[in-house]
Amino acid sequence: MTLPNSSAIDGSPDRPVRIGLLGCGTVGQAFVRTISGQGETIARASGRRLEIGPILVRDTSKPRDGIDLRQLTTDPQDVLRDPTVDLIVEVMGGVEPTGTYLRQALQAGLPVVTANKQLLSRHGAELLALAQSSGTELRFEASACAGIPVIKVLRESLLAAEIFAVTGIVNGTTNYILSEMSRGGMSYADALAQAQALGYAEADPSEDVGGADAAAKMAILASIAFHTNVHFDDVPFEGIDGLHGEDFDLAKDLGFVIKLLGVARLVDGGISVRVHPALVPESHRLAAVRGADNAVLLESGTVRQIMLVGPGAGGTETASAVLADVLSILGTAQGSFLQNALADAGRPLLSPDQTESAFYVRLRVVDRPGVLARIATVFANSGLSIRSVIQRGEGDGARLVLVTHMGSEARMNAALDAMRDMEEVRGEPVLLRLLAEEGA
Ligand code: NAP
Ligand code: HSE
Hints:
By secondary structure, the chain is an alpha/beta fold. It has helices at 26-37, 39-46, 76-80, 98-107, 117-133, 150-157, 172-182, 188-197, 206-209, 212-225, 245-253, 315-331, 371-381, 409-420; strands at residues 17-22, 50-56, 72-73, 87-90, 112-114, 138-139, 163-169, 256-267, 270-281, 293-300, 304-311, 356-366, 386-394, 397-404, 407-408, 425-434. L-homoserine (HSE) binds at residues 146, 171-173, 200-202, 208, 213, 312-313.
């Protein structure tokens, strides 16, 4: 079928890139909000403006934040055949009719970005071949681990890294439920309801708790990591719905936490991919991944271990990965921002004096009345607030440690100069900066 718009994205930087959206639920609405909220940043960094064109939904009367109702349609051809659309973003989910729509778009030469692991884990190889033969692109970063850029890392940075294992927490909903249950915060049912309310769960949450969602993601990750097509049906999976409360307590007594893991390995040249709940030692890096966060531990012959951690579900987080794919597609054009151009936002560089930290200062002082008060006055005069103080007697002197709240380097340097001038201070004060919650 030849569609009205079968051209690649118009290279003219003056014309906005118009996006046809399939689906406008949790991720779709967040994507529209992101495009509108970050429009200036996107334009400055990529040299292109993005705009949302027609949007396919099931029900045009549903309230949707920040969406112009006139853009909504229930006819997919209003999106797929719109001659002004440059690129399709698919965030409706499911295998059909979505697969049919994406085939139509790709055959027409339209680039496609999708968050759809259900479809990719079953028809990814065929859709990629179709994109290739149509001379266009299919990108799917958000289909595994939402906001974590793991697919791009595997496809580009680690393409030749001889990955032999991919072990991950790849479902945000179940990790959220397990985290809440293990800290005794919520029951299974309440935690699942909360994950649904927060937009983490699939339209059918049994996909999450039964392990199918994680299996789909592991099929996608294993396909890319091992350069071999792994189909959803190749991945045996178990979910968390069969776990018993007593196993959480027993695991804890034994020094483990229970996580839903995806495990993909090269074994004797073959590929094994599975999803199941597993006991993870409390000291393991994966044990510390909590809430809706995901993590993927990549093991490789060349770079040993790389672990990527970040948001594994959520509208805004997923929309960020979808946007990244859109920008990657724009970036593949000759002379685009990804081809050697450095975006210049014209932001001033701060001098070291302007940067802020909390500080740890260690001093040797003579042990005599009023010394601590004089040191405290130096900090006060420099505008630095003291958070804690330790004083330890050492022979005829004392070791004094002061930890401050956040303050500028300039203030700290002034305080150090004043202390160096004090005859009660012996030797050079030692200064360290704290990794504070507000920044380092
Ligand atoms: P959602 O909230 O259920 O939204 C789905 C949207 O698609 C809705 O706007 C719905 O229309 C529309 N839609 C569904 N079937 C349709 C059909 N047959 N025809 C027309 N419109 C249809 O789902 P979501 O959470 O945004 O997820 C979307 C996709 O992103 C899924 O593939 C999901 O696996 C993936 N994903 C989600 C997350 C997340 O955290 N939520 C993270 C990563 C990936 P109505 O609004 O009219 O019902
Ligand atoms: N339902 C999925 C999850 C969304 O909870 O991980 C991200 O793919």
